[in-house]
Structure formats: C-alpha cells, structure tokens
Design goal:
heterodimer; A: alpha/beta; Rossmann fold; four-stranded antiparallel beta sheet; 10 strands; globular; B: 422 residues; mainly alpha; 16 helices; binds adenosine-5'-diphosphate; binds magnesium ion
C-alpha cells in the first residue's frame, strides 16, 4: 500500500522529547544539511534514511555535540537548547552510538563503558563500575563473556553492543544510533535490532540512522527521509511501502529499483545502496 | 595459592560469580591453568612487564659472570642511586608516550633546571627550596608552552620538542654565562640528600614490612568488596602468598644493600614518584583519560573527555619531571655545567621508557616501565664501566637493547592485531 508522505515531522499523538527545526550545516561550499526538521518522542523509534552523503551522519554529529549547527533550533523537553560539546549532549540526556562506534580498543569493556563518566574521579570505584557494567550488558541480553578484556578482542556485534550499552549509562532520554547494522552479519544484525526494540520498550526515544529498508521496516515507528541534505517526507513505518521509501530517497518515482521492488516483495526485503559508509 | 579466582561464598554453591557465568569463559584452576592463561596472553602480544624483567635477569647474570663485582652490595647501592635522575625523567616520557606523543627536549629541560637551581641557590643566594621550586616551575611552564603549540596549532610534538631541545640548550648556556659551570656547596642540604643520605637499616625493614602489609590489606579489602558485590575475587591464600613474596623479595634486597651503605633517600624518592604515578594512571579518572587519548583521541573527545586538557597536563608533567631529574642530577654531581642534561640523557630517558615496555604507538605502558627500563640501562652502563670499556661500547650496547625493545613492541603490536587485541 502506498502511503503518502506527511508534512509534519512529528507523530501527532505524543509530545516530542526532542525536536529539530530548520537545522542547517555547511562544510565550506558543501551544504550538508538545509532546513532539516525532525521529532522523536519517548518510546518511539524514528528511522532516518537517505542515500550516501544525504547528511545523516552530519545530523547525528549535531545531535551529539560534535558539530555545531549553522542555523535552526533544537528543543529538548520543551526547552530550546544548544548542544555545544559531547559532554553537553550527555548532560541533556542525548546519547549517541557513532557509526564508527568510537571505542578505545586498548581499554577493556568496563573502561569503555564508563569512559568520561568514571565513578569517583580520584579513587576509581572499579567494583561498582563492574557491577553496573554487568547490569547494563544483561539488560541488553548481551553475549559478552568477560568485561575485563580489551575491546579489540570483541567481535563486531559485541562491540556494537558495548557501544549501545555505553549510551545507556546515565539513563538518557534520547538515543541516537548511526548505522548500527551497517558493518554486521545477519545474526548480529538481528541481535542489534532486538536491542533497539528493547530500548523502545524501556521508554527511550530512539533515532536510528539507516540505509537498510529491511531494518527500518523491522523496528521503526516512523521514517524520515533525507535527500541531499533536505527533508524529503515523513512516513508511517507500518504502512509505507519499500518502493515509496526508495522513491523518496532517490527522488525518482520511476526507477529500476523501485519497479523491481514493486514486482517482488512489496514490504520487506529491499534495500538501497550497499556501498560502505565513510 | 591454588585458585586465582574463587566464587563468592554467599550464593548457592555451583553458581559461579556473576562475572564468570559465561560458559565460554575458561576458568583457570591451579597454578597450571594460571600459567596457560599467561602463555595465551603472551602469545596474543599482551607482554606487559615480562620482557623487561626477563631482560634484566639476563643482563644481571651475564655481567656478573663477566665481572663478579657487578652484583656486589656496594656496586648495587651506587647503581640504584645513579638510576634516579634519568629515571625520574623517564617517568615523564612514559606519560607522553601513553598519549601517543613524544618529548625530545627532556635532556635540555633537565639541563636548564640544573643550571637554574645552581644559579638561584649559589649565585643569587636564594633558599634551596625556593630555588628547587623555581627550577621545577620553569619545567612546568615549558610543558605548558609545548601544549599550547600542540593544541592550538597542531604542530607535531616531535617538531615542537626538537625546537625546544635546541632553544633550551641555548638558554642553559646563556644563563651559565662565560664561566660555564656553577658548583653547589658540598654541605648544602641538596647535595647531602643526593650523595650522603641513606636510610638507617631498621627503617628499610620497617618500610619493607609496611609495603607488604599495605599490599595485603588493600588486596584483602578489594577482594571482600568484590565478594560482597557478587563478583569473583582473589582468594586469601593467593593474597597472602603475594604479600609474602613481596616481603621476602624486598626484605632480601634491603638486607643485601644494607651490607654496604644501604638504600639512598634519593632512590626512595624515585620509587615514591613511580608509585604515585602508577596510582594516578591506574586508579584515577585522569589516568583513564590518558590511556583513552593514547588509544583513540577522537573517541575520547566524543566521550566528553577534555582531550586538550589531557595533552596539557601530560606535557606539563613530563617537563616538570624532567626538571626534577635535572635538579637531582645537579645535586648528585654537586654542580651544574654546560654538559648538564647533554649527551645521552635525552636518549637514555626515552630508551628507558621504551625498554620498560611503554609502547611507542600510544595507550600502553605503566609507570613501572620507567623504573625497570632505567635499571636495564644503568646496569649495562655500570657493568661495562666495571669491565673498563669506555662509553663507545656503552652506546653500542644500549642502542642494541633499545632496538630489541622497539622490535619487541612492534612485533607484539602485530600479534595483538592478528589475535584481535590491537
Ligand atoms: N567534516 C566534514 N568536512 C567536510 N565535509 C563533510 C564533513 N562531514 C560530512 N561532509 C559532507 O557532508 C555531506 C553529508 O555527509 P554525511 O552526513 O556523512 O552523509 P551520510 O552519513 O548521510 O552518508 C557529504 O557531502 C560529505 O562529504
Ligand atoms: Mg554516515
């Protein structure tokens, strides 16, 4: 069923925890984002999809305080805020899992989980940190044998789990995941999608960046499409068809992938470009 | 001494501690299992302090065979004290290497501090303590300037500090003036501290006993805390064995050194600095951020760590320790002159840190690297001097040992990569 894109960035029923209006960001001559709107409310998974270079990662970095936006407003829990640094994002309650995970491979799991937020600065409370680490990992049903090994010796899925567990420390309101499944195999992808499901159940607002249609249809409530740095429609994930999403992503209603998607599986199995992300 | 980890007593028997529940986890049992875990780690490239301890042992045996005076009490007493100035400088090098940077100017900065303390104390007549504080402050300022250049303009640290090497050597020559050297009076507290101050024998034994007790007490408290939190913990017998080993080892060393003049206060100062830095690196938030910046600076930044502040603290710490090393060198020599901090001081300090197992690639190493590394270098130096070989041989042997250490570091890094511990 082809559903028409809505104008409104928010689902009407609940009030948004985090809303962006007219976010703009340029890198020199490249306008990475132009007038982007986005809303997420508690217990909701919003997928942000778009082609390579659409500006998804730039949006993530603005939310996490890595880049400052050139224009636009960010409203968090009905207050207008500015996110000046990663620490400021964390204090607000916005946690981010970056595409490259941003883990320190020479540190062990506990040290990575508590990096920058260690308990007792002058005499580290390693027992409390280890206990809390196990709690977090079990809460996510993570399959990590021991927390005292360097992150370098974990598999891709395990690292993703550590990165997600880290974002849960300090009980954030909003969790931003940048391409959480891009580098993973089938089983590990399922694992991570289950994690996202669990985050929603626990009442977190989740923004999940993806360019995999199957993942989006599997966990998202709403889908926001970015194209060349601009909003290109908001969709209800339950009703939107893959071909409409692809059309919005590529900007063309009539192309080979869209036609093929219509012919074969209308709901789940298609995805756009497979090229590795930078 | 059987189990490395015992499950807590409280939960029903058969349930492993909450950190040992994964079925894939191999549980070492008995010394054999412990040994096989250790072998695994070494094969995976996680070498720690093992190579330098082994190297020190080999060097000691070889030199003792070549000249039986080498391991005599008298020689070891001197060797330990000679270690201190460059060892203190090497402590600072460990810190900059941990964040993946380098300071090539520690020799010059130590020479400048030597000259500063001598001139302020002797020529200007300031109280010795004021002169020392001023000299160390000069070091701190130097480090602060380096950090500004590094943070603001992104100049690579080896270039900044190479410039510093030249500039501060020049400044040292300038402040020393035409005479080129200043002698410190032999009866000054500073010189007496470095040359004549030894611990009374009873105090060495008291300190050794205190160290063993402290090790046991902290280990026991930690184990109890872990047990009550439902985590695995070291058994009391293992803790006792560890403390007993420390007591026996240090006790024997103290007794052996006390047959000659004993343990110098200057060496005690060095060990105290090593322990303090070890604590700061392993048990504080600052220490974790140092390792994080060395491992992945961008990740550290995104985790909310003030990365620039970490670089600033580390450069300042390194230059300050270099200055302390310079003050101690001047005290030891009872003079500061144009060759203070020159020659092989720079390279020996860096070599000590690397030989001790600090990785040149950042993020790996401990404060003990400086202590063990400088012991290796000073042993070579002392042993070859006893054999009446001049400094040409010393340079060659130290160079070869350094190359071995760096090769080991690189090979270990590669096997960490291939076994997924990079
Ligand atoms: N740090 C940067 N400097 C310059 N250009 C950048 C930077 N980050 C992203 N860009 C540009 O912004 C655009 C959007 O990039 P990005 O947000 O990474 O896209 P996506 O994650 O959707 O693939 C691209 O054209 C990219 O080249
Ligand atoms: Mg991206």
């Amino acid at each position: 069923m082809a559903s028409s894109p809505t104008r409104a960035p928010a689902a009407t029923a609940r009030e948004a925890v985090l809303s962006l209006r007219g976010i703009t960001k340029s890198f020199g001559a490249v306008a990475a984002l132009t007038g982007v709107d986005l809303d997420v409310s508690a217990g909701e998974v919003v997928a942000v999809v778009g082609d390579n270079g659409a500006g998804k990662s730039t949006l993530v970095k603005i939310l996490s305080g890595v880049h400052a936006p050139d224009g636009g407003t960010i409203t968090f829990e009905s207050r207008q805020v500015s996110i000046a640094s990663p620490a400021a994002a964390h204090q607000l309650g916005i946690a981010t899992v970056f595409q490259d995970l941003a883990l320190c491979e020479n540190l062990n799991v506990i040290e990575n989980l508590f990096l920058g937020q260690e308990l007792r600065a002058l005499r580290l409370d390693d027992v409390a940190m280890e206990v809390r680490s196990w709690e977090l990992l079990r809460q996510l049903s993570a399959k990590i044998p021991t927390v005292r090994i360097p992150v370098a010796s974990l598999s891709g899925g395990q690292r993703q789990t550590v990165a997600i567990a880290r974002s849960l420390l300090g009980d954030p309101k909003v969790i931003v995941l940048d391409e959480p499944t891009a580098a993973l195999g089938v089983a590990q992808t399922t694992e991570v999608l289950n994690l996202v499901e669990r985050l929603r159940e626990q009442g977190h607002g989740v923004i999940m960046i993806s360019h995999n249609m199957a993942d989006v249809k599997a966990v998202a409530d709403r889908v926001a499409v970015l194209r060349l740095g601009r909003n290109n429609g908001f969709f209800d994930a339950a009703t939107v068809s893959a071909e409409d999403l692809i059309a919005a992503i590529t900007g063309a209603h009539d192309n080979v992938v869209a036609r093929r998607a219509t012919r074969t599986a209308p709901s789940t199995s298609s995805s756009t470009g497979k090229a590795a992300q930078p | 001494m059987t189990d490395v980890h015992t499950p807590p007593a409280a939960p029903p028997t058969g349930t492993p501690a909450s950190d040992l529940q994964d079925e894939r986890l191999r549980r070492p049992s008995g010394p054999g299992g412990f040994l096989s875990l250790l072998l695994d780690r070494v094969r995976g490239g996680d070498l720690g302090l093992l190579p330098v301890v082994a190297g020190l042992f080999v060097i000691a045996v070889v030199l003792q065979v070549l000249n039986p005076i080498f391991l005599s009490s008298t020689n070891l007493v001197n060797l330990l004290i000679e270690c201190v100035p460059v060892g203190v400088i090497a402590l600072g090098i460990v810190c900059v290497l941990l964040v993946g940077e380098i300071d090539l100017s520690v020799g010059s900065v130590s020479g400048l501090a030597s000259s500063a303390v001598a001139i302020l104390f002797v020529n200007r007549g300031l109280p010795v303590l004021v002169a020392i504080v001023a000299a160390v402050a000069v070091g701190g300022i130097v480090g602060w300037v380096y950090a500004q250049m590094f943070n603001r303009f992104g100049v690579p640290s080896f270039v900044i500090t190479l410039a510093g090497l030249l500039a501060f050597l020049g400044l040292q020559l300038k402040v020393l003036g035409a005479a080129g050297s200043v002698n410190l009076p032999f009866d000054s507290a500073l010189v007496r501290f470095a040359q004549l101050a030894f611990l009374p024998a009873w105090l060495t034994y008291v300190l050794v006993a205190a160290a063993a007790c402290a090790l046991f007490a902290s280990g026991y408290a930690h184990a109890r805390k872990r047990r009550s939190a439902g985590l695995s913990s070291r058994s009391v017998s293992l803790l006792l064995a560890r403390s007993a080993a420390l007591l026996a080892g240090l006790g024997f060393a103290a007794w052996y050194l006390n047959r000659a003049r004993g343990v110098g206060w200057m060496f005690v100062l060095f060990v105290a600095l090593v322990l303090m830095l070890h604590y700061a690196l392993s048990r504080t938030k600052w220490g974790k951020s140092v390792y994080a910046v060395g491992g992945n600076a961008e990740a550290a930044r995104r985790a909310g760590i003030n990365v620039r502040l970490v670089y600033t603290s580390v450069f300042m710490l390194c230059s300050s320790l270099a200055a302390i090393g310079g003050v101690l060198a001047a005290a030891r020599l009872a003079a500061a002159n144009q060759s203070s901090g020159a020659g092989d001081v720079n390279l020996n300090a860096i070599a000590a840190a690397v030989i001790g197992g600090t990785s040149l690639f950042g993020g790996r190493g401990t404060a003990f690297a400086a202590l063990l590394g400088i012991l290796v270098i000073q042993s070579i130096s002392s042993g070859l001097t006893l054999l009446n070989l001049d400094s040409s041989y010393r340079f060659i042997v130290t160079g070869v040992v350094l190359l071995l250490a760096v090769t080991l570091d690189s090979v270990a890094r590669r096997s960490r990569k291939s076994s997924g511990r990079a």
